[in-house]
């Protein structure tokens, strides 16, 4: 069965994998792997999963994890660059790390920090750590974020990447029922081309996209 890709809107998609709970389809145009809409969780079910997260800026292990995105992005930013942490979660931490480094930050999360007024601002950089895999409409959401960046602005994304079919079938990442969109390096390269941006992969699971 062909489904419309939630990233590029192509209908050139095909079945990729099925496990005991869900089906996974792959787009032949942008290489996104995605869960069909009818197999996604509802809002209350999603919130119940997110409420189990115990992330905190006081957790040094969590800071080390986030440093894979923080470090390469920070070294590319001018002093005082202003940022937005999109999908900050129940315990905003990446925003704290950038603020400690001298970067004013805004946060947005549809569940825990739902002030949409921050999405009307302009930012020198935007981060989304462990976010894109949760998006039902990643194409629309990412285009909206890029529109908030000036020329030279950065979009920093962290998510685990699809490698091949065999690895996907054994991948722990698909066991989280809130993960519905799975990117590969090829997907990010398509995204960069589509948005007229340059993409780098400076660290495991990290993609940095810059507006020209």
Mean pLDDT: 96
Low-confidence stretches: none
Helical proportion? 25-40%
In the CATH hierarchy, the third-tier topology is known as: Rossmann fold
Give a quick account of the main beta sheet: strands, pairing sense, barrel closure: 6 strands, mixed
CATH superfamily heading: Vaccinia Virus protein VP39
Helix count, per DSSP?
A: 6
Number of domains: 1
CATH class category name: Alpha Beta
Shape: globular
- Strand count: 10
Give an overview in words.
The chain has 212 residues and is an alpha/beta fold. It has one domain (13-210): 3-Layer(aba) Sandwich (Rossmann fold), CATH 3.40.50. The protein is 25% helix and 19% strand. The protein contains 6 helices and 10 strands. A 6-stranded mixed beta sheet has the order 5-4-6-7-10-9, with helices on both faces. Strand 2 (23-27) and strand 3 form a beta hairpin. GO terms for molecular function: methyltransferase activity. This is Class I SAM-dependent methyltransferase. Keywords: Methyltransferase, Transferase. It holds the Pfam family Methyltransf_23.
List keywords for this structure.
212 residues, alpha/beta, Rossmann fold, six-stranded mixed β-sheet, four-stranded antiparallel β-sheet, 6 helices, 25% helix, globular
Brief characterization of the structure:
The protein has helices spanning 43-50, 60-74, 94-100, 138-146, 165-169, 185-194; strands at residues 13-18, 23-27, 33-34, 83-86, 105-108, 125-129, 154-158, 181-182, 198-200, 206-210. It contains six helices and ten strands.
């Amino acid at each position: 069965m062909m489904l419309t890709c939630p990233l590029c809107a192509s209908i050139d998609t095909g079945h990729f994998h099925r496990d005991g709970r869900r089906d996974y389809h792959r787009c032949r145009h942008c290489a996104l792997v995605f869960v069909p809409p009818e197999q996604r969780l509802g809002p209350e079910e999603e919130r119940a999963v997110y409420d189990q997260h115990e992330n905190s800026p006081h957790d040094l292990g969590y800071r080390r994890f986030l440093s894979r995105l923080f470090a390469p992005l920070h070294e590319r930013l001018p002093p005082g660059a202003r940022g937005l942490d999109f999908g900050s979660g129940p315990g905003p931490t990446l925003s704290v790390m950038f603020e400690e480094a001298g970067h004013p930050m805004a946060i947005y999360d549809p569940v825990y920090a739902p002030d949409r007024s921050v999405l009307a601002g302009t930012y020198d950089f935007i981060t989304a750590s462990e976010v894109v895999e949760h998006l039902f409409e990643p194409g629309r959401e990412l285009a909206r974020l890029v529109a908030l960046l000036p020329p030279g602005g950065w979009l920093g994304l962290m998510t685990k990447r699809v490698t091949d079919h065999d690895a996907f079938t054994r991948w722990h990442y698909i066991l989280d029922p809130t993960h519905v969109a799975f990117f590969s390096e090829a997907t990010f390269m398509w995204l960069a081309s589509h948005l007229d941006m340059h993409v780098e992969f400076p660290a495991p699971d990290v993609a940095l996209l810059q507006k020209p």
